[in-house]
Amino acid sequence: MLGAVGTRKSGTRAILGCVRVKDIFTKGRVPMNTENLTIHLKVKDFNAWRTSYNGGEQSHVTAGITNGRVFRNADDQNDVVILQDVTDVAKARAWLGSTEMKTAMEKSGVVGSPSIRFAAAA
Question: Please, how many CA atoms are within 13 Å of residue 3, restricted to the half-sphere of its CB?
Answer without folding.
Answer: 4
